[in-house]
C-alpha cells in the first residue's frame, strides 16, 4: 500500500449508527458527519471505521478480496456482515466471498431471474387480493400486521414449497427478529420461530427426495454443482434460510415506509393513481429514500485505505447504504422524494457480487401491494399517532405498526376488479418503413377495445410468437387509446425480432403478448422543455414533444441523425414544434452545439435526452459542468432488456463470445446486447439493472478486449480489462472469452 498521500483517520468517539440520534433521523445523522468528517473511526460495538460517501460504499462492497463478508475473516464468531455481529447459522452465499460464494449464487440465480419472477406474478396477485379481502370490509387495518408482513411471507413460503399452515406461523417470527430490540422477549420468540423454520426446511427437503414437487425447494434440492455433485442438507438449509430471512422483512419495510409516505403526501399518491406507469421509476426512488437495509459491514483483509484514510487488516468497516443513497454528489437534493427521479443507482440492493438476488421478486411483491392499495383503498389515511417505528434503525429500518383507516371496500370475489398488470394480446395492424432501416409498427387489440393508458416516456414489452421478448418505447399519441405505435431498426442481419414483427403485419390470426406499459423515463411537469434526440432515440422524445406542445409549455427540440433519410418522424417533429424544432442531419450540417443549447436554457427548463451513448454522455457532462444536472432526464443505453430501439447499431460491431466454462461460442450481432446472447446459454446468470449501474452482471474476461459502457468500474479497472458488465459492455476485439 502507498501511504505517503494518505490522511490520518479522525477518531469520532460519538459515532454510533445505533444511537438514538441516528435512529431519530438517519439521513440527517449521516449528513452531519459527511459534512464534518466523512470517514472516521469509532470505538462503538468493539470499534469500526465508517464512511458516509457513495463512492466509498460502492468501492468497498465491490472489492470482496480486500473487504470480506466471511465470518472467518472477522474471527469466526457470529455473522460479520452487520455491526454488531448477529447470532444465527451461517448463511450462504451472503457470508462467503468469491469464489466460494459463486456456486451458491449460481444455484439461486435461475429461480429469481426476471423471467422466473414473471411466472410468479399471478400467484403474487392472488395472495395480495386474498390478504386485502381479509380486511377491506372493515374500513381499518394495521398495514404491517394485515398486509406488508403476511404478503411477502406467504409469497416467499408458497414459492419455496411450504404448506399453507406454515405461512402465518412463520410470518410473525421473521418480523419479530427485525422489529424487536435485541435480547428482548419478542426477539427470543422470533428466534424460536426460526428454529421451527429450520426444522421445516429439513422436512421439506427430505419429503422432496420421496415426492419431488414443482416448487423452489425441490429445484434447489435437485440442483447440482458445476462438477455434478449435489448440495448437502446443511448447505440447502443455509441458502433457503437466507432466502426467507433476507427477503421477507426487507419487502415489509419498503412497502410500509411507502404507505406512510403516500399518506403524508396525497399529491404523490394522486400522481401514482392517475399515472400507474410511473410506479416503476418511483419504486427505485422509494428504495433510495427508504433503504430497508440501512447498513451492512465488511472486514478488512489487508492494510488499505478508505476515502484516503488508512485502515488496517482485521478492522471492521460499516457500509451504510442509506448514507450512500443520500450523498448529494450522486443524488441532488437527496432528502426530497421525487417520483420522476432516475434513482436506479441507489445502493439499497447493494452492489457487486452480493447484489440482492431477490430484487426482482421484491419489486414484484411491492408493486402488487401498492397497486392493490391504490386501486382498492385509494383514500386510506395512516393514523400517525399509532405509528410504531423499529427501536433502532442502525441495520434495518421499518415500521412495526401502521394503523390506517379508509372507506370500507368490497371483497375482490364480489368486485369487478381486474389485476391491472395482466398482459394482453394485440395484433400488428401495420408495419411501415418510416426512414432508412426503421420500421414503425402499429398494434391494437383484436376486438378494437381500449389499450391501457400511458404517458410519454413509457415502453412496452412484446413477446413475439417465436418467444422473443423485445422492449420498445411507445412513440404514438397517448390520447389515442386504441393503438400503440413503436419504431425499431429493421435488422436483416439481427437475431430476427424486427423481421418477425415486420412479417406479422396484417395477419389477423396472429397475436402478440403485450406487457406494460412501464415508464422509466417520465415527463415531469415544467413550463419549458429542451428535448435532445439522436437517431432512433427520437422514439420516446416524440410523444413528449406532442404533450408539451399540447400543454402550451415552452419547448425547443434538437433532433440529430446521420442523414435526413435515416431520421424517422422528422416531419412529425417539425409539424409539432414548428420553428422551435432544429432538424440536424450531421452529413449536411455537422454536429449540433449541444453545450451552447444547454447553456442558453432558462433556469426552469427541463432537459430530456435520448440517443446514442456518446451523445447522452456529452449532454450529461455538459449539464454537470453547467450546474443543471438535476434538471436533466435521460434514457441511457436501452431502458430495459433487448431494445433494438435505443441502441444505435452504427456504434456497434459484431463480435464472437466464447464462454469458457459452458464451452459455447456465440455471435453477438450489432443489434443485440451481449447479455441477451449469453443468457440463452447460461440460465444461472446474475443481473438486475441491465443499465450498467448495479454491478450484478460483472463477469471475468479471460481473453479479448472489453468495451466498457457501464458506470460501475473505475478507470483503472476499465483499463485493466479483466472484468466487465455484460449488460451494456461489448467487445473491442473480434473475440471475447468470458469466465462463464
Ligand atoms: C426491498 C427488499 C430487499 C432489500 C432492500 C434487500 C437488500 C439486500 C442487500 C442490501 C443485499 C446485499 C448484501 C451484501 O452486500 O452483503 C441483499 C442480498 C441478498 N438478498 Fe436481498 N433485499 C430485498 C429483498 C430480497 C428478497 C425478496 C430475497 C429473496 C427471496 C432476497 C434475498 C437476498 C439474498 C439471497 C442475498 C445474498 C446474495 C449474495 O450474497 O450473493 N432479498 N439484499
Ligand atoms: S445488470 Fe446491473 S450492471 Fe449489469
How would you describe this structure to a colleague?
By secondary structure, the protein is an alpha+beta fold. It is built from 23 helices and 31 strands. It folds into four domains: 108-414, Orthogonal Bundle (Cytochrome p450); 424-519, Elongation Factor Tu (Ef-tu), domain 3 (Beta Barrel); 528-635, Nucleotide-binding domain of ferredoxin-NADP reductase (FNR) module (Rossmann fold, 3-Layer(aba) Sandwich); 652-738, Beta-grasp domain (Ubiquitin-like (UB roll), Roll), CATH 3.10.20. It has a six-stranded mixed β-sheet. The protein has a six-stranded antiparallel β-sheet with strand order 17-16-19-14-15-18. A five-stranded parallel β-sheet has the order 22-21-20-23-24, with helices on both faces. A hairpin with a 5-residue loop joins strand 16 (458-463) and strand 17. Helix 9 (185-210) packs across helix 11 (233-264) and helix 17 (538-551) packs parallel to helix 18 (570-577). The longest helix has 32 residues, at 233-264. Residues 414-421 and 637-647 have low confidence and may be disordered. Bound molecules: protoporphyrin IX containing FE and FE2/S2 (inorganic) cluster (FES). FE2/S2 (inorganic) cluster is lined by residues 687-690, 692-697, 710, 712, 725, 727.
Amino acid at each position: 500500500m502507498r501511504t505517503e498521500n494518505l490522511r490520518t483517520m479522525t477518531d469520532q468517539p460519538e459515532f454510533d449508527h445505533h444511537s438514538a440520534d441516528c435512529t431519530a433521523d438517519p439521513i440527517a445523522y449521516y449528513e452531519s458527519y459527511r459534512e464534518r468528517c466523512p470517514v472516521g473511526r469509532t470505538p462503538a460495538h468493539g470499534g469500526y471505521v465508517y464512511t458516509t460517501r457513495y463512492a466509498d460504499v460502492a468501492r468497498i462492497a465491490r472489492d470482496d478480496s480486500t473487504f470480506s463478508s466471511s465470518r472467518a475473516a472477522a474471527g469466526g464468531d457470529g455473522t460479520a456482515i452487520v455491526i454488531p455481529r448477529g447470532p444465527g447459522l451461517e448463511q450462504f452465499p451472503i457470508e462467503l466471498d468469491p469464489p466460494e460464494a459463486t456456486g451458491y449464487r449460481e444455484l439461486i440465480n435461475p429461480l429469481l431471474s426476471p423471467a422466473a419472477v414473471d411466472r410468479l406474478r399471478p400467484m403474487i396477485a392472488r395472495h395480495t387480493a386474498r390478504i386485502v379481502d381479509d380486511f377491506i370490509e372493515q374500513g381499518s387495518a394495521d398495514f404491517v400486521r394485515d398486509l406488508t408482513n403476511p404478503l411477502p411471507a406467504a409469497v416467499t413460503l408458497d414459492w419455496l414449497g411450504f404448506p399453507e399452515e406454515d405461512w402465518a406461523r412463520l410470518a410473525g417470527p421473521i418480523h419479530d427478529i427485525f422489529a424487536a430490540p435485541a435480547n428482548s422477549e419478542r426477539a427470543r420468540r422470533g428466534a424460536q420461530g426460526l428454529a421451527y423454520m429450520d426444522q421445516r426446511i429439513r422436512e421439506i427437503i427430505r419429503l422432496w427426495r420421496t415426492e419431488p414437487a414443482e416448487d423452489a425447494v425441490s429445484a434447489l434440492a435437485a440442483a447440482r454443482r458445476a462438477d455434478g455433485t449435489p448440495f448437502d442438507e446443511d448447505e440447502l438449509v443455509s441458502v433457503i434460510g437466507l432466502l426467507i430471512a433476507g427477503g421477507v422483512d426487507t419487502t415489509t419495510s419498503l412497502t410500509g415506509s411507502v404507505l406512510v409516505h403516500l399518506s403524508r403526501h396525497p399529491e404523490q399518491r394522486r400522481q401514482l393513481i392517475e399515472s400507474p406507469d410511473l410506479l416503476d421509476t418511483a419504486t427505485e426512488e422509494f428504495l433510495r429514500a427508504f433503504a430497508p437495509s440501512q447498513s451492512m459491514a465488511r472486514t478488512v483483509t489487508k492494510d488499505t485505505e478508505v476515502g484516503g484514510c488508512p485502515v488496517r487488516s482485521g478492522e471492521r468497516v460499516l457500509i451504510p447504504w442509506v448514507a450512500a443513497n443520500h450523498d448529494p454528489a450522486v443524488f441532488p437534493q437527496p432528502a426530497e422524494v421525487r417520483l420522476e427521479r432516475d434513482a436506479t443507482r441507489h445502493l439499497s440492493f447493494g452492489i457487486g457480487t452480493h447484489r440482492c438476488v431477490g430484487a426482482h421478486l421484491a419489486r414484484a411483491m411491492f408493486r402488487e401491494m401498492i397497486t392493490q392499495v391504490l386501486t382498492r383503498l385509494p383514500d386510506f389515511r395512516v393514523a400517525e399517532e399509532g405509528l410504531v417505528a423499529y427501536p433502532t434503525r442502525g441495520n434495518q429500518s421499518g415500521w412495526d405498526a401502521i394503523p390506517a383507516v379508509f372507506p370500507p371496500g368490497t371483497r375482490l370475489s364480489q368486485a369487478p376488479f381486474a389485476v391491472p398488470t395482466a398482459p394482453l394480446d394485440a395484433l400488428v395492424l401495420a408495419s411501415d418503413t418510416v426512414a432508412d432501416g426503421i420500421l414503425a409498427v402499429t398494434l391494437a387489440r383484436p376486438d378494437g377495445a381500449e389499450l391501457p393508458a400511458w404517458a410519454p416516456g413509457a415502453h412496452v414489452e412484446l413477446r413475439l410468437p417465436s418467444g422473443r421478448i423485445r422492449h420498445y418505447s411507445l412513440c404514438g399519441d397517448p390520447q389515442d387509446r386504441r393503438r400503440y405505435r413503436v419504431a425499431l431498426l429493421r435488422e436483416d442481419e439481427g437475431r430476427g425480432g424486427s423481421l418477425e414483427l415486420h412479417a406479422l403485419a396484417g395477419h389477423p390470426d396472429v397475436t402478440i403478448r403485450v406487457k406494460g406499459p412501464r415508464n422509466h423515463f417520465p415527463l415531469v411537469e415544467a413550463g419549458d422543455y429542451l428535448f435532445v434526440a439522436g437517431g432512433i432515440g427520437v422514439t420516446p422524445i416524440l410523444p413528449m414533444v406532442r404533450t408539451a406542445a399540447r400543454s402550451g409549455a415552452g419547448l425547443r427540440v434538437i433532433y440529430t441523425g446521420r442523414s435526413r433519410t435515416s431520421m424517422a418522424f422528422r416531419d412529425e417533429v417539425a409539424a409539432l414544434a414548428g420553428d422551435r424544432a432544429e432538424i440536424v442531419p450531421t452529413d449536411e450540417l455537422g454536429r449540433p452545439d449541444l453545450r451552447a443549447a444547454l447553456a442558453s436554457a432558462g433556469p426552469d427548463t427541463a432537459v430530456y435526452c435520448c440517443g446514442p451513448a456518446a451523445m447522452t454522455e456529452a449532454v450529461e457532462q455538459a449539464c454537470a459542468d453547467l450546474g443543471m444536472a438535476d434538471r436533466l432526464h435521460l434514457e441511457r443505453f436501452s431502458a430495459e432488456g433487448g431494445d433494438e430501439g435505443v441502441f444505435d447499431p452504427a456504434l456497434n460491431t459484431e463480435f464472437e463470445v466464447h464462454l469458457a466454462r459452458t464451452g459455447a461460442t456465440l455471435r453477438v450481432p450489432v443489434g443485440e446486447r451481449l447479455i441477451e446472447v449469453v443468457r440463452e446459454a447460461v440460465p444461472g446468470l446474475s443481473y438486475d439493472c441491465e443499465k450498467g449501474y448495479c454491478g450484478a452482471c460483472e463477469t471475468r474476461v479471460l481473453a479479448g478486449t472489453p468495451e466498457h459502457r457501464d458506470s460501475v468500474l473505475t478507470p483503472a479497472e476499465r483499463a485493466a480489462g479483466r472484468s466487465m458488465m455484460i449488460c451494456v459492455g461489448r467487445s473491442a476485439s473480434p473475440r471475447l472469452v468470458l469466465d462463464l
